[in-house]
Amino acid sequence: MEIYEGHCLCGECRYFIRGKPIDAGYCHCNVCRRACGGPVVVWATFLRTGFESLGEPLGEYVTSSGNVRKFCKKCGSSLLLLCVEEPTTIDVNVASLVDPQSVSPDYHIWCQSQLSWFDTRDSLPRFGDRGPDSARGRAMACAISAKDTNQTPKGKSDSSLSEPVGKL
Ligand SMILES: [Zn+2]
Ligand SMILES: [Zn+2]
Description:
Blueprint lengths: L2 E5 L5 E6 L4 E5 L2 H7 L4 E7 L3 E5 L3 E4 L5 E4 L6 E5 L6 E5 L13 E3 L25 H6 L5 H6 L17
Parallel strand pairs: 3-10
Antiparallel strand pairs: 1-2, 2-5, 3-4, 4-9, 6-7, 7-8, 8-9
């Protein structure tokens, strides 16, 4: 069985995951951007049953959508995301893995919030909303190009993650 390992910047918070990721994707949403301090964040989704946290207990922040974001209380590294609508899985910040190259993204989500000056060179599917992360997203499955994305109105009201900055 495959084992993935990760930790925060200071090393006090560590984790292990047994099993392969279900998938991984770039998230361009406003909340991830602010919470993680980067133009985009890559999350890998694993089954929660294979996840084990070690070391210092993680800090938690619950956003208005009910999603729980976990971080190191000492160094502030953003490590985990527990989505309220996906109780059996856990999202791991790929940048926190010991080997971040062991997982590569499969798609982009929340492209409606993508920064106009930021892009990546790839041909991965791009979704304006949650995309593959939700059944609704799959049904809507409209892969959109990066150029179109920049012209798409931001902040759809039905999106739990693209909430106004003030509600964070
Ligand atoms: Zn730390
Ligand atoms: Zn996000």
